Sequence to fold (220 residues):
Amino acid sequence: MSLRLIDKESIASDFSDDPAKSFTPNAGYFFDSAVYEAEQAKIFQRSWMYFCHQSQIPRPGDYRVGEVAGQSICVVRGQDSQIRAFFNVCRHRAHQLLRGSGNLKSTIRCPYHSWTYDLEGRLRHAPHCETVRDFEKNSVVLSSVRVEVAAGFVFVNLAPRSGALAECLPGFEEKLLEMVPEAPQLKSASTQGLRYKGELEGGGREFSRELSLVLLGTGA
Ligand code: FES
Fold:
């Protein structure tokens, strides 16, 4: 089944501005791959997305990897304690750089050919590239992703030119701090793994996913 999602007239006929007429979207909106891709491109790759709480990367060198709108992203706390985010992809042959979470001493080392970057994303070492003509080591940096912290919560945005978090979500941080003043001081108390299984409709292909539920507390 293919939806006419991009067609504004068909959207208008499927939806109403009147909440009293709320019913349910066409079933295809839940499983059509064209809808999914349009949502990724038009919403999730252009929006501020929650990534983690700052307490989950408290020390210099701490990092976490996560998927945002289909892209592998790593968030790293640098030696200067600044939080930075990068596409988790080596600039050499696009191998995935980091997995999971942990602490880096001072560099990010690609497991494929050992290109090594500092925690600000600058290439520091590229074995065997000394003899490559015109290779400019200093011009190679990891592709950065915009990152902001609001009330202790780390958000990333894949769109380089979207507005700041406070512009896109006006009053969000203030409201959150009003409701939970201790939000920036929360600590990751425990992580619970949840596993769910399902079967794709029609094709019968099974899938399973693992979700991590992070519980935050004040530690008091
Ligand atoms: S792909 Fe990373 S060093 Fe080659």
Summary: The chain has three domains: 8-44, 50-180, 187-217.
